[in-house]
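Intended use. Records such as the Nucleoside ABC transporter membrane protein entry shown here are meant for training and evaluating sequence-to-structure methods. They are not intended to support clinical decisions.
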Amino acid sequence: MEQIILEALARALAVGTPLLLACLGAILNERGGVVNLGVEGLMAVGALAAFAVAYPQGNLWLAVGAAMLAGAALAALHALATVTLRANQFVSGLALALLGTGAAGLLGKKFEGMPLFNKVPDWTLGGFALSPFTVAALVLAALLAFWLGSTRGGLTLRSVGENPAAADALGVSVVGVRYAAVLAGGALAGLAGAFLALSYRASWADNPTAGLGWIAVALVIFVGWQPLRAVAGALFFGFLYYLQFRLQGSSAVPTEVFSAMPFVLVLVVLALAGLRGQQGNAPASLGRTYVRGER
């Protein structure tokens, strides 16, 4: 029984790591008032950049940096479209998701089926094997929670997401803050992709993210835009993925039913959040374009 519990926890942590990293990035975006539905594409290009640099035995630190840079670079397109050109944030995010996953699928064709010989090794902490990415994700969640709630920078970001006109009147650069939030969020999504390429699978396959980016976007609402709650939410969905693999082949239920479990639960959770008024916790100016002087 103990072994089953440890296996479930290990799997939940493994699958929950990219969800947590991507969710933290999305929280940064949305606390600044910018919705980014392109997390799936950002993770995909991050995974590709990490694998391309690390294959076959490249520098892993450079691979991680490349993944974060790729995620931030692609996110910059979203910032340009939504903050500078004032395009619809939802449409831009969807376009970013399609662009990122399409580019990763096309450019990654030459790597399909190829293993990575120098994957990031796990750390053993208290007899428990953890990926360095998992430890980093947990630390980042704590740091982001502290930064948002207890520092001037966090207050500035939250003020831009709540009332950009008031922040602007106090001398805050709304454009600059939103650009920084979107780029930082893209870097974290790229880091989530690096985990998939360098630690979780350590090989390249088509569609490396497998829908995790979409779950991360929904997870932001599920946890009420709170970084520490995101840890529990990521573990919860990670455990669902563990159940999906655990139950496959052990019953007469078709495999597709188990594959759809996490996504069906996302819809259920979002529906319940709407009924409970959870979306009322969203930043007041989320998704709204800010134009100086307009009311």
